[in-house]
Design brief:
Largest interface: B-C, 51 and 57 residues
Shape of chain A: elongated
CATH superfamily of chain A: MetI-like
Order of helices and strands of chain B: HEEEHEEHEHHHEHEHEEHHEE
Number of strands of chain B: 12
Strand content of chain B: 15-25%
CATH topology of chain A: MetI-like fold
CATH architecture of chain A: Orthogonal Bundle
Chains: A mainly alpha, B alpha/beta, C alpha/beta
Radius of gyration of chain A: 27 Å
Strand order of the largest sheet of chain B: 6-7-8-3-9-10-12-11
Oligomer: heterotrimer
Helix content of chain A: 55-70%
Largest sheet of chain B: 8 strands, mixed
Largest sheet of chain A: none
Helix content of chain B: 25-40%
């Protein structure tokens, strides 16, 4: 008995095709885009950070004055909102008559360069250690855990202080010292994620294909921990900016006359009581930047790895 | 030597049919569990002196419950877990002498969980293309074509080529995993519970596909499963494992009809066929699955065995071999005569 | 969890074999869940009744709504779920109308639930004994000693040796099979009238599965408990069920007694499902299979949800809601095909082939 014999009239053989049965669920990237679009913290924080970065990059073209140009006749002019403020110097001038807005903008370049480079170094060092330890396990992981424990037992500020006082404070020295002192968080997180991933069957499948360890680490594991690395990097940026500011404030970081945010606060210290704007403005900048980075970092975490909350 | 080893064509393969392709001899794997400053490391014998072999073009099913060592055995066959002792012969040559990449082109896996066996950050094209990339076969558009070809063979629509695993259904994911295994044209495919994570209707699709592909590519399957219904459908040879050891092995129909080992009987009895006129089986075996860290003495099955004799707890049962296969049970050794065979329970 | 009650006065006897009122009477249950991409219509217009002491199986593949249905009955759905139903009557009380406090008094007392993974439903930091007694003390006005005696009695009933020792142990010290036995003992502490078991043996080994099912059946007989067994495994259904509801894409597509469903399945999905199971003797033959995949239940859709996988689907399957055809009380299917079409072509007779290979 053929099916057509039994079928009541009007029936067509073969599956009907409808749109609701054919639509693919959204891709991971599309989902991410959707989450990002509706995340206020990410939009606000990320927007502020991007604005500051853009200003820092464009500084040589848009800064009103040379930040090193001293004008002793125009010392300690108030900002525009002050009693003796003038349009010539929007944020006033410092004790040597240098335009404060220009110094703040060039300071952003220095501070942001240091923190970006230092974060890059710490991310590479930490993620490499973490992924390698988590993937191989055993003795290699034992060694990585040992390194992490040693690192965690070092007070970062104290160590950087002593290191800077030995090698001297320069931008390069600061980048490397801060970079090698803040990799622990990357290592801890990537290690635990890699340990979970190691037991996933797609890793076994890659091994069974004959893929080398290097290939598995780079093309199978790394893409799966990349989101976590980005999230930590955004949060660590804030810490790094603070460390740089503290070191420079203490006179062990960027050396004058190079401007950096921490150094600006330090320079303003002696005029704290009668020209408070000299430390309030750079202090507020650091404060806002750190908050914006944290907002953006939290947002990135929500958007990139929502399963990783809490 | 050339990087790419040319595989024998279909005709050549057919000529050597019925010869043993993969032969495991006394294969064991021990894991060291725990062991730190404060606790002593323990030995876990996951696979214990296993002898199994599969002939070209056949399906060898390895059956057992969790903790039986079947997955560990499969990973040793794949070469991703080195055996502690014993050896494996591929076409009569020891596997230990074959380099990893060459072995990978001949033996490929299909894993149980299609959700963890595909990298969530990769597209279908990248996943199926990985073996080609690793072995340096084709590149660019040619590689994509090859990926599309194999996708078509396993019944995946071409429009899925740039989608990510999370956009696919369980069955589609398993098809991707099958495509990845077959894209390098292996001889042996180790299927570790390939359908147990799938829905019934999808399981049937995948089983049919595996049977079709086996005929089309003259594949040899090592089929690892706990589901005797599925195994009965697909297998030619059967090996039943319990706590790391093979307790019974032989041609499928012999093992299923004779069910000489009491554990085989229990396992077969627990298959629930969809027949409402039958009630639930009374297995008559002890309940607890013993602690794999401390296997029982003698025959590992004796605490649960309905036909246990005093000798079972003292002496490890020797292998009894005849035309119907191999069985490790005292009922078939000198102590218990074949008159006490527990078939007619 | 938002509950909407659709008042319906046309109370009809729903299913069952007709002796007395059903223990649980679910009518027109619909569950919508808000998800980021829209509204997920998890359960649509599900009706069934469970009589005292019987085993009722809800069968379906993943995502068919069988678990959501049971959680809706237990009122355990998250806040994002909207429940609407004409009624969910349990022992004559409408579960939808009860306050949170009243439903807490029922759960674990008159209504028991067993989950797939016993580890997640046992608290790892308390001993087994503590957890068993706790259930009893919460619902019964009694002392700890009585609770402990009841716990020991039940552990013996579920086949656990040396119960006194086991009561002092923690969940992680037990094997999966033992844990599931503990769970069963825990749900039986207060002699529930209805036990809902959601895939109770899926996480267990096959030999253990048979033993646990046997245990459930024995206990059910002894305590006269009704059992709703939720499973994807038609083998379990055949061996356990008195009556069956087959679910697909949030709808009940076929209901009937176990014998009716397996001997004369009507819905193309049920038939396809039965043909998919490898049974002894099918070696070398192709398994029947259902092409395609389950449709997404997000968003509005109408017509038969199975039409994209159905060999008989046509234009008339695309529109409107397909009604459940009642063949007799408690026997029906949701399809526009006439009863009895093409049965011989699509199904096997399991009774003849399957019996050959079962050890008895």
């Amino acid at each position: 008995m053929a099916i057509s014999d039994i079928n009541p009239a009007g029936f067509v053989r073969g599956p009907a095709s409808d749109e609701i049965f054919e639509a693919l669920p959204p891709s991971p990237r599309e989902l991410m885009r959707r989450r990002a679009r509706s995340h206020g913290g990410l939009i606000f924080g990320g927007g502020f950070v991007l604005l500051v970065v853009a200003l820092a990059i464009l500084t040589p073209w848009i800064a009103p004055y040379d930040p090193y140009n001293q004008d002793l006749s125009a010392r300690l002019i108030d900002p525009i909102w002050g009693a003796k403020g003038s349009w010539a110097h929007l944020l006033g001038t410092d004790a040597l008559g240098r335009d404060f807005l220009s110094r703040l903008m060039y300071g952003a370049r220095v501070s942001l360069t240091i923190s970006a480079c230092a974060s890059l170094i710490s991310a590479i060092v930490g993620a490499t250690l973490g992924i390698v330890g988590g993937y191989f396990g055993g003795r290699i992981d034992g060694f990585v855990s040992y390194l992490i424990n040693v690192k965690l037992s070092l007070p970062p500020l104290l160590v950087s202080l002593s290191l800077v006082s030995v090698v001297g404070g320069s931008v390069t020295a600061l980048i490397f010292i801060i970079g090698f002192l803040t990799w622990d968080r990357y290592a801890v997180v990537t290690r635990s994620v890699s340990m979970q991933l190691r037991n996933q069957e797609f890793i076994a499948a890659a091994q069974a294909v004959g893929a080398s360890h290097t290939r598995i680490l780079l093309t199978e594991l790394l893409p799966n921990v990349m989101n976590q690395i980005i999230v930590i990097a955004s949060l660590e940026m804030a810490v790094v900016i603070l460390i740089e500011s503290v070191l420079s404030f203490l006179g062990l970081g960027v050396q004058p006359p190079t401007p950096s945010w921490g150094l600006l606060v330090a320079e303003g210290r002696s005029f704290m009581f009668f020209k408070p704007y000299l430390i309030v403005i750079p202090g507020l900048t650091i404060f806002l930047m750190v908050i914006a980075i944290n907002l953006a970092g939290d947002g990135l975490r929500d958007v990139l790895s929502p399963e990783g909350r809490n | 030597m050339n990087q790419i080893i040319e595989l024998p064509g279909r005709a050549e393969r057919a000529a050597t049919d019925a010869s043993v392709l993969l032969d495991c001899r006394n294969l064991s794997r021990t894991f060291i569990v725990g062991g730190s400053l404060f606790s002593k490391a323990k030995e876990l014998r996951a696979v214990d002196r296993v002898n199994v072999s599969v002939r070209r073009g056949e399906v060898l099913a390895i059956v057992g419950e969790s903790g039986s060592g079947k997955t560990t055995l499969g990973r040793m066959m794949l070469g991703i877990l080195p055996p502690t002792s014993g050896e494996m012969l591929l076409d009569g040559k020891p596997v230990s002498g074959i380099d990893r990449k060459t072995l990978a082109r001949r033996i490929q896996p299909i894993f149980q969980d299609p959700y963890s066996s595909l990298n969530p950050r990769k597209t279908v094209a990248q996943i199926i293309g990985l073996p080609l990339a690793v072995h340096g076969i084709e590149a660019g558009a040619a590689r994509d074509r090859r990926v599309e070809e194999i996708m078509e063979r396993v019944g995946l629509s071409r429009r899925l080529i740039h989608s990510y695993p999370n956009q696919l259904s369980g069955g589609q994911r398993q098809r991707v995993a099958i495509a990845r295994a077959l894209v390098v044209q292996p001889e042996i495919v180790v299927c570790d519970e390939p359908t147990s994570a799938l829905d019934v209707s999808v399981q049937a699709q995948i089983l049919n596909l595996l049977v079709d592909l086996r005929n089309e590519f003259n594949l040899t399957y090592i089929f690892i499963s706990h589901d005797l219904g599925v195994v009965e459908y697909i297998a030619d040879q059967l090996a039943v494992m319990y706590m790391g050891q093979v307790v019974e092995a032989g041609p499928r129909h012999e093992v299923l009809e004779q069910r000489r080992h009491p554990y085989t009987q229990a396992l077969l009895g627990s298959v629930l066929t969809p027949d409402p006129s039958l009630g639930l089986p009374d297995l008559q075996i002890g309940r607890g699955f013993p602690d794999i860290m401390h296997p029982p003495s003698g025959c590992h099955f004796h605490p649960r065995c309905p036909s246990a004799m005093p000798v079972c707890s003292a002496v490890e049962p020797p292998a009894f071999r005849d035309s119907a296969g191999l069985v490790h049970c005292h009922l078939f050794s000198g102590e218990g005569s074949s008159a006490t065979r527990p078939i007619a329970q | 969890m938002t509950i909407t009650q659709v008042r319906d006065t046309s109370v009809q006897p729903n299913g069952g074999s007709g002796h007395g009122a059903p223990l649980l009477d679910v009518r027109g249950l619909t569950v919508d869940i808000a998800v980021p991409a829209g509204t997920l219509h998890a359960v649509s217009d599900v009706s069934f009744a469970v009589n005292p002491g019987e085993t009722f199986c809800i069968v379906g593949e993943s995502g068919c709504g069988k678990t959501i249905t049971s959680l809706a009955v237990m009122r355990l759905l998250p806040k994002t779920a909207r429940i609407a139903a004409q009624r969910i009557l349990f022992e004559g009380r409408d579960l939808l109308g009860l306050s949170d406090k009243e439903i807490l008094g029922l759960r674990g007392n008159r209504l028991g639930m067993i989950f797939q993974d016993p580890m997640t439903s046992l608290n790892p930091v308390f001993t087994i004994g503590n957890q068993l007694e706790e259930v009893y003390l919460r619902h019964r006005n009694s002392g700890r000693r009585e609770a402990r005696e009841r716990a020991e009695f039940l552990l013996e009933k579920v086949g656990i040796q040396s119960p006194a020792m086991r009561l002092g142990q923690y969940p992680h010290q037990l094997s999966g099979g033992l844990r599931q036995r503990m769970m069963i003992a825990m749900t039986l502490m207060c002699e529930p009238a209805l036990l809902i078991a959601d895939e109770p043996t899926t996480a267990l080994d096959v030999t253990v599965q048979a033993q646990i099912l046997q245990l459930l059946k024995n206990l059910q007989r002894e305590f006269r408990t009704a059992l709703i067994l939720i499973t994807h495994d038609l083998g379990i259904v055949a061996r356990m069920a008195d009556r069956v509801a087959i679910m697909y894409a949030g709808r009940v597509v076929e209901t009937g007694t176990s014998a009716e469903i397996f001997a004369a399945p009507q819905h193309p999905y049920t038939r396809g499902l039965l043909a998919c199971i490898p049974v002894p003797g099918s070696q070398g033959k192709r398994l029947g299979s259902i092409p395609g995949i389950v449709p997404s239940l997000i968003g509005e859709n109408e017509g038969c949800m199975f039409r994209n996988r159905c060999p008989y689907a046509g234009e008339s399957c695309r529109h409107g809601e397909i009604a459940l055809r009642e063949l007799s009380p408690g026997r029906g299917y949701r399809c526009i095909l006439e009863p009895g079409h093409a049965i011989s072509e699509a199904t096997r007779e399991p009774a003849t082939t399957a019996s050959q290979a079962t050890v008895q």
